[in-house]
UniProtKB/TrEMBL annotation, chain A:
<dbReference type="InterPro" id="IPR036188">
    <property type="entry name" value="FAD/NAD-bd_sf"/>
</dbReference>
<protein>
    <submittedName>
        <fullName>NAD(P)/FAD-dependent oxidoreductase</fullName>
        <ecNumber>1.-.-.-</ecNumber>
    </submittedName>
</protein>
<dbReference type="Pfam" id="PF01266">
    <property type="entry name" value="DAO"/>
</dbReference>
<keyword id="KW-0560">Oxidoreductase</keyword>
<dbReference type="GO" id="GO:0016491">
    <property type="term" value="F:oxidoreductase activity"/>
</dbReference>
<dbReference type="InterPro" id="IPR006076">
    <property type="entry name" value="FAD-dep_OxRdtase"/>
</dbReference>
<feature type="domain" description="FAD dependent oxidoreductase">
    <location>
        <begin position="4"/>
        <end position="340"/>
    </location>
</feature>
UniProtKB/TrEMBL annotation, chain B:
<dbReference type="InterPro" id="IPR036010">
    <property type="entry name" value="2Fe-2S_ferredoxin-like_sf"/>
</dbReference>
<dbReference type="InterPro" id="IPR042204">
    <property type="entry name" value="2Fe-2S-bd_N"/>
</dbReference>
<dbReference type="Pfam" id="PF13510">
    <property type="entry name" value="Fer2_4"/>
</dbReference>
<keyword id="KW-0560">Oxidoreductase</keyword>
<protein>
    <submittedName>
        <fullName>(2Fe-2S)-binding protein</fullName>
    </submittedName>
</protein>
UniProtKB/TrEMBL annotation, chain C:
<dbReference type="Pfam" id="PF04324">
    <property type="entry name" value="Fer2_BFD"/>
</dbReference>
<dbReference type="InterPro" id="IPR023753">
    <property type="entry name" value="FAD/NAD-binding_dom"/>
</dbReference>
<protein>
    <submittedName>
        <fullName>NAD(P)/FAD-dependent oxidoreductase</fullName>
    </submittedName>
</protein>
<dbReference type="InterPro" id="IPR041854">
    <property type="entry name" value="BFD-like_2Fe2S-bd_dom_sf"/>
</dbReference>
<dbReference type="InterPro" id="IPR051691">
    <property type="entry name" value="Metab_Enz_Cyan_OpOx_G3PDH"/>
</dbReference>
<dbReference type="InterPro" id="IPR007419">
    <property type="entry name" value="BFD-like_2Fe2S-bd_dom"/>
</dbReference>
<keyword id="KW-0560">Oxidoreductase</keyword>
Length: 368, 92, 467
């Protein structure tokens, strides 16, 4: 049986590992400890398409493709593992609280509409439309964009379900042997770790921010930057917010998560009061009932941001069989990673539809 | 489940709990007052299980009630006040 | 929009907690001319051990208590009662008083948040009518209330016997004491503390208490195991094994106790480092001899850093204040050294007995050995069995268990389950607790409303939506 090594046991690595293992490959995941910074534990859980790839239609199409696979993906995870990733696809809003926000949103929607291959379902909607679906919005909400294909999942349960499914497909998860480089030992593709070396037919680097330096050892250019996102979490509340927004979503357990911040190049996890207070101020304007809800925790997680914001899929020229995957939207793309990319990598190829999301775009940028 | 060591005549305050009046001693905490009148449970868990004051020092958050319109106040950290309106966190 | 925070006048040193450590720190800081604000979440001064010391005094307090409280009240320190601190924003502390958000700028912060009882895990421990033994103390000292019906005290630690005597004196004796301290602990513990010979007072006072229990004819069941609270919607009694057979005692209240651990959530949420203290089977905050925390501008005094009892807390409170006074140039290095030396010496002398107490009262009602049906996380109602299952499914650390079970995600913010969680992980994986990271805790250091968070800072506008 051919052996594949996946470096990174977060949601991206697990999704790819599941996709590869299904084709019959023997897959080993090299994962760090429970303590490592993990974007899989620190994200908003959105399965989101509106606004994604407004400047790059192939990314918009790819996000759509994955979102369309999500219902089946979530069902099969639940069936196989008994763990429900709690995917809800009821449509999502991006709420606007000022004329400026409304204008900016409308121009984005206009840009997306009419692009080839993308359903024309993102629309600007008025307050009546919003109130019918989100009766608890406040008077400051003056409009929104809306897309019926948007939804959200529980990233913690998704992570756990993928790990359980991976194990049931025979994937072995090894911890705490830090991968240092990927190279050829003679003609054998090999992962060199701190303690051992692992020969393999395929290697996929899906190690979050560590992907960039690891991919470089195999000649792949995967430029990434850290970005910190802070989120506030409330106590469990009765169902009140049926549709997610980029700033607020209610999990099935009832807790409401709010706040959407991006601090570029911050590498320390943690929170700051000015940003948390800003989150709370906006949350109360969006949903005034939240004012009396209890805040139980907050976190600021370091996430992965490709240099140009779009996912990067790389295939090594110098180390045949080595690949790298990095993206900001590991939740949205999990279904496509498990269903399309994993099996393709097992066949030693990247899907043709990802041509413009390949890391070659950075070679071109460098050349020009 | 509790009784007071104080002279009953000293219980000269009145608090309203879920719409009914109860006597209260100056200086006792809301949690002590609720337990003294056997007004437990004070809250229900998300699955509906009954809970009542447990640690009485602010660490367990089992005794949270609504006090004068403020939700989820720790009853064990709050002294009673005359006329205080207390609502237990119970779903009917 | 919510009201914005009220801003207190700036202070030299903010002390959080008005128990022995906080009061001693305040007195010492005032002695050196520092402006002091003491923020305490309790309705009266004294913390837990001296609760009610300024009132009618329904129990006998240790002799240093009343002079300390009185010196504190005359010290000129500003005392804010009912103040729950929940964030530190640069040099500013953010706290709430009855829902109003306040900001206080302080050059130095002394955390004196004391101890809390070690969380116990046994079937039925969340039923109404089950309280901690400390809770009975708190009710007696603070609210002059005692159990009105049959009740039992169960667990391990010196507080059990002390509380039984105090309540007996108040006219409410317990039905029985169920002592879970295992057979042989006394002898094993003595070997750990050769220093105890220099501290005979401790052992003698323990013997005296036991003699008084015998005189009061309160039954004691020793070396009890397999504790289970009876009842479905309310505590109806306690079942346990002792002397080779099963016992069932009917009681409307069951008070549990298994020692005390640092009440350190606020310190952790301020980013201060802690380490596992194997002797005490609990975390201890990392501090220097001058009780400085790992984060600049923060000192941790008393039991909040590591359990050593009320009197020792007054010593570390004084050490903290002396070091703050030196830091703020109110004391020269020489004057500081001269003032701190006797305090440091007394502290190290008295600490000798600590290892004996830690060993004698090591946890007996820990989740690691608990029945699977017992709730490990009270708030999210996670039984021990579900945590064990998550570990069996591959969870190797605290974050993975939390993610899989929601353990620690409720209103107590992990106060009641963190130690249980790491002890189960260590037990199930045959590892040391030090192999697991302590779950992180960020703002808020205690639950607040969204409105309070919104009012805590002017904010910096909407930070953008990218989706």
């Amino acid at each position: 049986m051919k052996r594949a090594i996946v470096i990174g046991g977060g949601i991206v690595g697990l999704s790819l590992a599941v996709g590869m293992a299904r084709t019959g490959l023997s897959v080993v995941i090299l994962d760090g400890s429970d303590q490592e910074p993990r974007a899989s534990y620190g994200n908003a859980g959105l399965v989101w398409v509106q606004g994604k790839g407004a400047n790059h239609p192939p990314y918009a199409q790819w996000s759509r493709r994955s979102a369309s696979l999500w219902p089946q993906f979530a069902e099969s995870l639940l069936a196989a593992t008994g763990i429900d990733p709690e995917y809800d696809r009821r449509g999502g809003f991006s709420l606007c609280l000022s004329e400026e926000e409304l204008e900016a949103r409308a121009s984005m929607v206009a840009k997306l509409s009419g692009q080839p291959g993308i359903p024309d379902d993102v629309a600007m909607v008025d307050v009546d439309f919003i109130r019918e679906r989100l009766p608890k919005v406040g008077p400051d909400v003056i409009g929104a964009s809306w897309c019926p294909a948007d939804g959200h999942a529980n990233p913690l349960f998704l992570n756990q379900a993928l790990a359980v499914q991976a194990r049931s497909l025979g994937v072995e998860i090894l911890r705490n042997d830090k991968a240092l480089s990927i190279g050829m030992a003679g003609s054998q593709l090999t992962v060199f770790c701190a303690e051992n070396r692992y020969p393999a037919e395929r290697v996929v680097i899906a190690a979050g921010l560590a992907t960039q330096p690891l991919a470089a050892t195999a000649g792949m250019r995967v430029p990434l930057k850290p970005v910190r996102g802070q989120i506030v979490v409330t106590e469990r509340l009765p169902p009140s917010i049926a549709h997610a927004t980029p700033t607020t979503r209610q999990a099935r357990a009832g807790s409401v998560m709010f706040g959407n911040s991006h601090e570029d190049h911050v590498v320390t996890p943690g929170t700051t009061l000015p940003i948390l207070a800003s989150h709370a101020q906006r949350a109360i304007r969006e949903f005034p009932f939240l004012a009396s809800a209890r805040v139980l925790r907050s976190w600021g997680a370091i996430r992965v941001m490709p240099a140009d914001g779009m996912p990067i899929y790389a295939r090594s020229e110098t180390c045949p069989g080595a690949f790298a995957v990095a993206c900001h939207s590991g939740i949205t793309l999990a279904a496509a990673h498990a269903g399309i990319v994993g099996p393709a990598i097992a066949r030693d190829a990247l899907p043709g539809e990802l041509a413009t999301l390949s890391s070659r775009r950075f070679d071109a940028a460098l050349a020009s | 489940m509790l009784r007071s060591l104080l002279d009953p005549a000293e219980a000269r305050l009145t608090v309203m709990v879920d719409g009914r009046p109860f006597d209260a001693h100056p200086g006792e905490t809301v949690a002590a007052c609720l337990m003294r009148h056997d007004l437990v449970p004070t809250r229900q868990t998300p699955t509906g299980r009954p809970r009542a004051p447990y640690c009485l020092m602010g660490a367990c958050f089992e005794c949270t009630v609504e006090l004068d319109g403020r939700t989820n106040v720790q009853a064990c950290l709050t002294p009673v006040r005359d006329g205080m309106v207390i609502c237990r966190n119970l779903r009917a | 929009m919510p009201e914005f925070a009220s801003v207190d006048p700036a202070t030299d040193v903010a002390i959080i907690g008005a128990g022995p450590a906080g009061m001693a720190a305040a007195i010492e800081a005032r002695r050196h001319g520092l402006a002091v604000t003491v923020l305490d979440d309790q309705p009266t001064i004294g913390g837990q051990i001296l609760r009610g010391i300024t009132g009618a005094r329904r129990v006998h307090y240790e002799i240093w208590g009343a002079p300390l409280a009185s010196a504190f009240q005359q010290s000129g320190a500003r005392h804010v009662r009912g103040a729950s601190v929940w964030a530190r924003d640069g040099e500013t502390l953010v706290y709430g008083v009855e829902g109003q958000t306040c900001r206080l700028q302080a050059k130095a912060v002394i955390l004196a948040t004391g101890s809390m009882e070690r969380p116990v895990v046994l079937p039925g421990h969340t039923l109404p009518g089950v309280v901690t033994v400390g809770a009975l103390q708190s009710l007696l000292k603070g609210s002059a209330a005692v159990p009105s019906g049959r009740y039992v005290l169960a667990g391990s630690g010196p507080l059990l016997v002390l509380t039984a005597l105090q309540l007996t004196k108040a006219g409410a004796p317990p039905l029985a004491i169920i002592d879970t301290t295992p057979r042989g602990r006394w002898r094993a513990s003595l070997t750990k503390a050769p220093g105890l010979i220099g501290e005979p007072a401790l052992a003698i006072s323990g013997m005296k208490l036991l003699a008084r229990i015998r005189m009061a004819k309160i039954p004691i069941f020793r070396h009890a195991t397999d504790l289970r609270v009876l009842g479905t919607d309310r505590a109806e009694g306690l079942a346990f094994r002792a002397e080779g057979r099963e016992h069932r005692l009917e009681a409307g209240m069951v008070a549990l106790h298994d020692g005390v651990v640092p009440n350190d959530q606020l310190a952790v949420s301020f980013g201060c480092a802690s380490r596992w203290n194997a002797d005490a089977q609990a975390y201890a905050m990392v501090t220097t001899a001058e009780v400085r925390a790992s984060v600049g501008g923060i000192w941790i005094a008393g039991d909040a850093a590591a359990i050593s009892g009320g009197y020792l807390a007054t010593l570390t409170g004084r050490l903290a204040a002396l070091d703050v006074a030196r830091e703020l140039a109110m004391l020269t290095a020489e004057a500081h050294a001269e003032a701190a030396a006797p305090v440091l010496a007394e502290r190290s002398r008295r600490l000798a007995a600590r290892r004996f107490v830690d060993a004698l009262y090591a946890p007996t009602l820990s989740a690691a050995k608990a029945d699977g049906s017992a709730l490990l996380c009270r708030c999210e109602e996670v039984p021990v069995s579900r945590v064990r299952a998550a570990i069996a499914q591959g969870a190797t650390g605290t974050r993975q268990v939390k993610a899989a079970t929601r353990c620690g995600m409720g209103p107590c913010q992990g106060r009641q389950c963190t130690l249980s969680l790491v002890s189960v992980l260590a037990e199930e994986l045959g590892a040391a607790v030090t192999d697991f990271s302590r779950p992180s805790l960020r703002t808020p250091g205690r639950p607040i409303t969204v409105a309070e968070l919104a009012a805590s800072h002017s904010g910096q506008g909407h930070t953008g939506s990218d989706a």
